[in-house]
Write a structure and sequence with these properties.
The complex is a heterodimer.
Chain A: H1 7-18, H2 34-46, H3 50-56, H4 73-86, H5 105-113, H6 118-138, H7 150-161, H8 166-184, H9 187-193
Helix pairs in contact in A: 2-6, 4-5, 4-7, 4-8, 5-8, 6-7
Chain B: E1 2-4, E2 11-14, E3 22-31, H1 35-46, E4 51-54, H2 69-76, E5 90-92, H3 114-124, H4 131-144, E6 147-149, H5 157-169, E7 173-175, E8 177-179, H6 201-211, E9 215-218, E10 220-227, E11 232-240, E12 246-259, H7 262-272, E13 284-286, E14 291-297, E15 312-314, E16 328-332, H8 337-343, H9 348-355, E17 361-368, E18 374-378, E19 384-387, H10 392-411, E20 416-419, E21 425-427, H11 430-435, E22 448-450, E23 480-482, H12 497-516
Parallel strand pairs in B: 1-3, 2-9, 3-4, 3-12, 4-9, 5-22, 12-23
Antiparallel strand pairs in B: 6-8, 7-15, 10-11, 11-12, 13-18, 14-17, 14-20, 16-17, 18-19, 20-21
Helix pairs in contact in B: 1-6, 1-12, 4-12, 5-10
Classes of the chains: A mainly alpha, B alpha/beta.
């Protein structure tokens, strides 16, 4: 097997990270943080279609009776579509496996994000904007993500997951984690995995 | 409202119950209630001094730990388990709440390697901290926490795979020691122990501190260390309502301030407080022990979520010699469904098909005894920023470790092993593994997790190269001590909890002496 190598570059990066005279509380003030820089890149990517995004936040209809705690209507719709694909059930030998909609995964994500700091909500919003308006173009589709057929949505998500941008891949991982938390938190999914679930509060007949 | 924290008035108190701004006059204030903070607090109280601890998270007990990931992540982890390095390449799991990371850790108890202590003395001017110097503290802590070896009958199937792999390959390995008594072997350790079997800060140290007269305030976030540039004078804090909304201002006036909020939290607080930093070392030197996982699929059920999670280790690729190119520590690592789903590559029906093999998976993790030097900054939004760019040398160690995990799983009988990546790398034989180009192994390409932040306010007698002295006291600001993993000048190459407890106890006499004035 061949292992990654190149100690010289690594040592350089380490030395560079350790050097400098940023002192005390002022250390953040005079430097452009990488987080901000990456955030800027994300914003540029997402807002490459800024005009589009601004216009296209209209026309997203929430399901009747749905109220939101953190996401906007368009963000909720994008999460709902993404969750359907990310947590698409493997129904090859069991047609009863619940879908993301059955478990209201998008509703869970909305509730979860309500407890997150504003900066995290903002970052998720930017990423969802990228998925909805920019990523489809890169995957050869001239339509919003949320209006694409399922197979095309899979193509778009796969392109983001395998993006050459570390930031976009990290964004995908974040969204995927949220969706799977919303899905696999539900005891109705545990039997699919052969997982018997928590011992605490376990119902007499087991979790279902 | 103003109050003193006189000895004999011990209690667990909640910031959410504070009805108005609060000022406390005490001998010492401790920020953080994990391994280091709990010991410092206890020793101060036992010395008859008035001491309070401030904890930003909640005070929970075993009754609150319901073994559900979606409930416990927000309760027990910083940023609900979402904390990561600035570039989002490495997830950093850290405790939040009374007891800190000792509430969710897997109870591993390994002393600081003697070779590491020797390195600190030779290269980092750390004095009075040889293995012999620290032995009494380790002995005492191990008694307090009832540390004992996890014997073969208590080893679960996933750990047995590691033992079997080590023995088949002739690799060095052995059982681990833990701080648990009355363990039910439920396998939910990382979500808090519902059975009170963990002998940790929450169950042992903090109740002892309170019994000796200390006060522990939960829901109270320290926002600034008060000082005049030469002496610490207290801490400014905010009491929250339990949901994160500010409720009251808390001011603690004290002769001694002990930072014990972790290598991330302490450094971020110190930077926000404008402490003098002539060496420029404050916040620098962050080590993480970053780790990746490898999963093996077995013909028989492993059900790795049952039983004690980490009771066996492989140290074949771990050396503490200076400049060693063997810097990988291997232990089992099994996640509950939400964590497993996040780690498995891909999505959709194919992902679920892979998840349906969950009971048949054996999973190992390779952690790097890292040389990468990262940094903790105070973020604009109040959250700490962890800057960590893994060196190529550490990337090579990570690749070596993942390959070693794959070898172990194959040797233990796996039908095939998978290194999570996009695309996933799957091999079914040693020959295939040896043909695999591992240059893809790097942050962002494989999921990485870190649970051992260290460094950032490192100790040493030379103020030009360290932030605090070998007594743990800040070089410039007298009365300001550090009592957590921030102290360590390098990576430990071992789980840090028992080292943090022991250093806190070892250095406590200096803290007590300063608090006595």
């Amino acid at each position: 097997m061949r292992e990654a190598s190149g100690k010289a570059a690594g040592a350089g990066a380490s030395a560079s990270a350790s050097a400098g005279a940023g002192a005390g509380a002022g250390a953040t003030a005079g430097r452009i943080s990488r987080r901000r820089l990456l955030g800027g890149v994300a914003a540029a990517l997402v807002l490459g279609g800024a005009g589009i995004a601004l216009v296209r936040t209209r026309g997203y209809a929430l399901p009747e009776g749905r109220t939101l705690a953190a996401l906007t209507a368009w963000q909720f719709i994008v999460v709902q579509h993404a969750a359907r694909r990310i947590a698409a059930p493997d129904r090859a030998d069991d047609a009863s496996i619940p879908s993301a909609d059955d478990l209201d995964v998008a509703g869970f994500v909305d509730g979860w994000m309500a407890r997150m700091p504003a900066a995290v909500r903002r970052d998720l919003g930017r990423f969802l904007g990228y998925v909805e308006h920019v990523a489809p173009l890169g995957a050869g589709h001239a339509s919003r993500f949320s209006r694409l057929p399922a197979a095309a949505q899979d193509e778009v998500l796969a392109s983001v997951e395998a993006s050459s941008s570390d930031l976009l891949r990290a964004g995908f991982d974040g969204l995927k984690s949220l969706v799977f938390m919303g899905y696999y938190r539900d005891p109705r999914t545990w039997g699919i995995l052969g997982y018997d679930g928590p011992l605490v509060n376990r119902p007499r007949g087991g979790w279902r | 409202m103003s109050a003193d924290g006189g000895a004999g008035a011990g209690a667990f108190l909640r910031g959410r119950d504070v009805t108005g701004d609060l000022t406390l006059d005490v001998d010492a204030v401790v920020v953080g209630t994990g391994a280091g903070g709990s010991v410092a607090l206890r020793e101060l109280a036992r010395a008859g001094l008035s001491a309070v601890a401030l904890e930003e998270g909640a005070w929970s007990t075993s009754r609150d730990f319901d073994q559900r990931e979606d409930h416990m992540l927000p309760l027990l982890f910083q940023e609900a388990g979402g904390r990561a390095t600035e570039d989002m390449a490495i997830r950093v799991l850290q405790g939040r709440g009374v007891g800190g990371s000792t509430v969710h850790n897997t109870n591993l108890c390994k002393r600081t390697p003697a070779a590491i202590l020797d390195l600190w003395a030779r290269r980092h001017a750390v004095s009075g901290a040889s293995a012999a110097d620290l032995a009494p503290a380790f002995d005492a802590i191990e008694r307090d926490l009832s540390v004992s070896e996890i014997t073969a009958p208590m080893r679960n199937a996933n750990n047995e795979l590691l033992r079997k792999g080590c023995e088949a390959l002739g690799w060095r390995g052995g059982p681990l020691r833990h701080n648990r008594v009355g363990c039910q072997q439920s396998g939910f350790c990382e979500l808090g122990c519902a059975y009170d079997a963990k002998q940790n800060a929450l169950k042992v140290m903090l109740p002892q501190a309170v019994a000796a007269g200390a006060r522990v305030y939960s829901d109270v976030e320290a926002v600034r260390v008060l000082h005049d540039g030469a002496r610490a004078t207290g801490v400014e804090a905010i009491a929250h309502d339990g949901a994160g909304a500010p409720r009251a201002r808390v001011t603690v006036r004290a002769r001694v301030v002990v930072l014990a909020a972790s290598a991330v939290g302490s450094a971020a607080l110190a930077r926000r407080s404008g402490l003098p930093d002539p060496s420029g070392q404050l916040g620098r030197g962050l080590r993480l022990h970053p780790g990746g996982v490898v999963a093996g699929r077995f013909a028989r059920a492993i059900e790795g979520w049952h039983g004690i999670p980490q009771s066996y280790e492989c140290t074949e690729h771990l050396s503490f010699d200076e400049g060693s190119d063997r810097r990988v520590w291997i232990v089992p690592a099994f996640a509950h469904p939400i964590g497993a789903a996040a780690e498995l590559p891909g999505f959709g029906a194919a992902h679920m098909a892979a998840m349906r093999t969950y009971p048949n998976l054996g999973v190992l993790t390779a952690m790097v005894h890292d040389e990468t030097s990262g940094e903790v900054l105070a973020g604009d939004d109040g959250r700490p920023v962890l800057r960590y760019a893994m060196t190529d040398a550490d990337r090579a160690q990570l690749a070596r470790g993942l390959a070693a995990c794959a070898r172990l799983l194959l040797a233990a009988g796996a039908e095939h092993v998978t290194i999570p990546a996009i695309p996933p790398r799957r091999v079914s034989s040693v020959a295939e593994l040896e043909a695999l180009d591992l240059s893809f192994v790097r942050p962002h390409a494989v999921p990485l997790t870190a649970v051992h932040p260290m460094g950032t306010m490192r100790m040493g007698d030379d103020p030009k190269t360290s932030v605090v002295s070998s007594t743990g006291e800040h070089h410039q600001v007298k009365g300001l001590f550090v009592s957590d993993g921030s102290l360590f000048p390098t990576s430990l190459g071992a789980p840090p909890q028992i080292s943090i407890y022991a250093f806190a106890l070892h250095l406590a006499p200096h803290v007590v002496a300063r608090a006595r004035g």
